[in-house]
Task: inverse folding
């Protein structure tokens, strides 16, 4: 039986940490209570949810009552954008042209169905938003991805927040790719709303959270009972919420050492690939980037074909495939890359289990594939 490929796709999803899995299991079996119930089992479930809320809040520097549990980053983004929009008189939104669909689609919904103007700001050649393009008129809502899911570029969210607040708007950050990989403090960012995805930080899929700063008015996008402060009705998924809480606590413990360790491994990977593959382009910025993320591109090659040929590395490409035809990633084109280079992009994202032997093995395999 052949060994599994080297896993360099942690920006797609992370494996569930052992401690998380062990914490989840009891709430799928014996501790099955409904947190809204006054029964013994229900009170235990409520205590577990409350503790998880404290753990998640601590990771991002929030208060527990500012954390709303959701089914993931996409739902958190929808509640933040569509829910906040219902209370905003100024129907003008500001965002970047390189947002994740989980943010871009709710904004498009506001534009197409509720008469909002949506200003998509350009980015520079490092995938960072050009803040000087923010309009000078009143703004209702600003939303920005904190760490770009493809390139790993970190956006200037504090400066963005200051400018949007000055124009009268609320500020939301999609931090799905950032929380658990870099330090994230809501007060330092200056945001009113912030989205978290459990499966990006070694927690389960199907659970996330939304930070809602005290005093921020947000309406639910799904109607029902009053769970999660009325913002996310429906019986809480206690097991997955507990898993998210444990994942958040683990992330806080290892964050400092993992930032340094993964940054060093990423640079080793780049050095080996750059020496072995003439003409290879580093798409990810060298500074102001997620420590685990390296996007590279080789003009004239199709990244998807390279990964198919290599087989020994699990990673992602910067292209989309429709009916067998590959098209370049729009974010890479927005950065100024030509289509030929953008089609050759590979996103390599490291994780806590990545070791130097993995990097060396992956570099050898990728160099062979890129050179073929």
Result:
């Amino acid at each position: 039986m052949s060994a599994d490929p080297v896993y360099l796709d942690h920006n797609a999803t992370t494996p569930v940490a052992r401690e998380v899995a062990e914490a989840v299991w009891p709430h799928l079996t014996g501790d099955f209570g409904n947190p809204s119930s006054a029964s013994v089992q229900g009170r235990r479930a409520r205590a577990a949810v409350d503790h998880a809320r404290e753990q998640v809040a601590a990771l991002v520097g929030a208060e527990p009552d500012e954390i709303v549990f959701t089914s993931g980053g996409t739902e958190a983004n929808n509640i933040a954008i569509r829910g906040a929009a219902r209370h905003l008189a100024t129907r003008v939104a500001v965002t970047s042209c390189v947002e994740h669909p989980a943010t871009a689609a709710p904004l498009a919904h506001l534009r197409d169905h509720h008469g909002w103007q949506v200003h998509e700001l350009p980015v520079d050649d490092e995938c960072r938003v050009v803040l000087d393009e923010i309009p000078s008129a009143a703004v209702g809502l600003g939303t920005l991805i904190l760490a770009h899911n493809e390139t790993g570029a970190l956006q200037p969210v504090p400066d963005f927040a200051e400018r949007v607040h000055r124009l009268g708007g609320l500020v939301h950050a999609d931090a799905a790719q950032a929380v658990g990989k870099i330090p994230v403090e809501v007060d330092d960012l200056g945001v009113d709303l912030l989205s978290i995805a459990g499966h990006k930080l070694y927690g389960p899929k199907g659970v996330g959270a939304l930070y809602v700063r005290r005093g921020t008015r947000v309406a639910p996008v799904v109607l029902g009972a009053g769970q999660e402060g009325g913002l996310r009705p429906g019986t809480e998924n206690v097991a997955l919420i507990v898993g998210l809480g444990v994942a958040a606590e683990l992330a806080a413990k290892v964050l400092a050492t993992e930032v340094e360790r993964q940054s060093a491994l990423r640079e080793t990977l780049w050095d080996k690939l750059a020496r072995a593959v003439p003409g290879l382009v580093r798409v990810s910025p060298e500074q102001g980037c997620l420590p685990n993320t390296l996007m590279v591109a080789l003009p004239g090659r199709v990244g998807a074909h390279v990964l198919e040929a290599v087989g020994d590395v699990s990673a992602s490409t910067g292209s989309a495939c429709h009916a067998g035809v590959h098209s370049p990633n729009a974010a890479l084109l927005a950065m100024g890359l030509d289509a030929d280079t953008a089609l050759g992009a590979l996103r390599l994202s490291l994780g806590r289990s990545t070791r130097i032997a993995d990097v060396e093995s992956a570099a050898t395999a990728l160099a062979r594939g890129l050179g073929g």
In short: The chain has a mean pLDDT of 96. Residues 238-276 form the longest helix (39 residues).
